[in-house]
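notes to self, project folder thing:

trying the whole complex as one job this time. last attempt i did each chain seperately and stitching them together was a nightmare. two parts in total, labels are on each line so i dont mix them up again. if this works i'll redo the older ones the same way
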Amino acid sequence: MTENRVYNFAPGPSILPEEVLQRARDEMMNYRSCGMSVMEMSHRSKMFMDIFSSTKESFRSMLRIPDTHEILFLQGGATLQFAGIPMNLLRGGTADYAVTGNFSGKAAKEAEKYGKVNLACDTGATGHDRIPAQSELKLSSDARYFYYCANNTIYGSEWHYIPETNSTLVCDMSSDILSQPVDVSRYGLIYAGAQKNMAPAGLTVVIVDKSLAGHAMPFTPEVMDYSVLIKHDSMLNTPPCWCIYMLGLTLDWLKTQGGVEGMEEIKRERARRVYAVLDDSSFYRPHVLPGSRSDMNITFRTPSEELDAAFVKEAAANGLVNVKGHRITGGLRTSLYNAMPMEGADALVKFMKEFEVRHHV
Amino acid sequence: MTENRVYNFAPGPSILPEEVLQRARDEMMNYRSCGMSVMEMSHRSKMFMDIFSSTKESFRSMLRIPDTHEILFLQGGATLQFAGIPMNLLRGGTADYAVTGNFSGKAAKEAEKYGKVNLACDTGATGHDRIPAQSELKLSSDARYFYYCANNTIYGSEWHYIPETNSTLVCDMSSDILSQPVDVSRYGLIYAGAQKNMAPAGLTVVIVDKSLAGHAMPFTPEVMDYSVLIKHDSMLNTPPCWCIYMLGLTLDWLKTQGGVEGMEEIKRERARRVYAVLDDSSFYRPHVLPGSRSDMNITFRTPSEELDAAFVKEAAANGLVNVKGHRITGGLRTSLYNAMPMEGADALVKFMKEFEVRHHV
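result (full assembly):
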């Protein structure tokens, strides 16, 4: 890192590529000689429409999104989609929800307002320490869709397979989107908050099979109705322009990393190095079982809460910040999103080893 | 303007104070030596919470918002509030809507999904060229609230009085908030999209009397329920952090302009200079009747559509950009938001006079 920056392991909002921030800074006052900042552009101006279109095209190309699916750039976060998805897709019927963490649990609870929810699984009894096997999923016969969260930011678990279901697949990819290729054609809807792997908080990307739109419940706000949003190409009202611009810069940067294919290799190696420390140690205890572990969020503990606190403090003194676990789980968590350089993971590994030597009894 | 910037008369997203952009640029890579950008901060970190709290406090102090009212920093734009307001306040009853332009019309239409809407007025028959007098408002006896839009961005009209009503006052102040003092205690709810006088697009500020919350319709998304949002201090989920930070910078800048009291003097004089050209001319025709004119958006025409188009083109060549009228109205529109320096208005006035001389027949 240059410019006296730290390695930021926050779970989101989180680290952005330094090159992206530098470009945003350099273009801040006067974007490409147009005399104004991107933040000042009318969303319907040619200048901004060019940014919008090229970002969308770049996103489509990066994830090889088929023409059957539309890409929407929305506001409101994943939390608004917890309601938006059932409002649009449930049609008063039943949906299967796989609860493997905090946010899938919240999504299931919100969906109950709009129809019947069947819990296809709930890993809460063992502290969400794993992703269930396909055979463990209890599917209902008449589900409109099957909902899951691909990566559980708080618990540090990640689905390493796409579930086979008898209904439309809906997936919250907020914390692992753009970290690997995805077969989008298998999904009815994928969505993600931007603030982990894509852009600053304030943008939610929804990838939706267009054939699913047009069945929103009558009380659905117009700006949450996918058919309206598709028709207006995300511009029924003013979109979060700055975040869309930042996503475009991130996609440009991602191309220099080999796209999602290149990023998959990087993120696997980056996470492998940290998990290796955990597995080679009797001092650190990882939270999630092998086979269910996230490449994005690594959760673990030292032998005591006092040492956990010392770890957070000493890490920060070494320029490794935001490694405290979520308040629900306690312990430690290091988030290794796309923008985390390998040097950041190596600095963390070095610190973890030294900390263990210093504090092991 | 320095840095080869233009005078941007766009209706929103729109011009931001140059000093605000410069500060954002200078703090971009490393905010106050914390080693990261504001865009990378966890919304629950102490660093960001300080930004959040001081912005909120500054906003409260600037508009002298009483403790009876909560300030919410939300996403989704005014359009999401078109649904959110009736979902929270209508309780299945009736609301009075004053339709004086495009957005109040859209708000009234959206509210019909949630209860009964009475049109207290509709100025559409005369092209929304004026604001009705108090005596013209048709109020229903049992309204839950009276809704109006303080400033009509597209048509260029503005309410210069607060309506007297027998129900809770609700006002969309998207395009004139922070341009003058407001007696907030007279309102049940005030809201505004940020992208005109406050910050980049992606933030909606809601000022709500706390006693009105807690009656949301059962299908209201959790993240749209004012009582939930109040309880979580706008952080049920990740807020639009960057826009909140930018609002804080704008409020700091506004203090240097004498706050909303100082800004009121500035904006009146700024608009007066442009309206003077219109009223002294037989070439330009203003759209809105005297007494109903907006200080923020000035709408007018030349003698022909061809000359309107020439005006837009020649103005741009003179560094005065985005003066084309909305596609609904045609004609010309110059938006003079808080961030427009008096020099920008003067440059516009000079250009208007020269254009008239060149093209008057």
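what i see at first glance: Chain A has nine helices and 14 strands.
need to look closer tmrw
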